[in-house]
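Mods, move this if it's the wrong board.
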Amino acid sequence: MTDVPALGLAALMTGSGIGHAVAPAYFGRLVPDWLPAPEAAVAVSGALDVLAGVLVAVPATRSAGGWLTAGLITAYLPAHLDPLRRAASAARMFDRTPGIAARVLVNVGYIGWAVAVARAGGPVRRTPTGPRRAPRG
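Not the wrong board. Structure tokens:
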């Protein structure tokens, strides 16, 4: 895999995170009403989006960033599905059933993109958690 898909994903996530800071009211409207502290949710999710974007942009952390991105976008799916509760009376097409379906499909595509970037980035390396043994000899 070339760097182009990874750098595109990094730009998407970083841009989204910056968007959370620049237009918090827009992102706040996407937070379901059953979730407490919508302002905090917008701030935290924006910071996590930037973190994911930076991790994806750096080859050494690309795999971890791809998995973080996939996890974040998966976690955001309930916010895209929540408008189904009010879809019949929604004023905007974006909040009616076809618009919601389109949003979910796009986000499923983003998850696939993130997984592809994560897998191409190689395995996530873990450091040993136990004590190191002295070499025998």
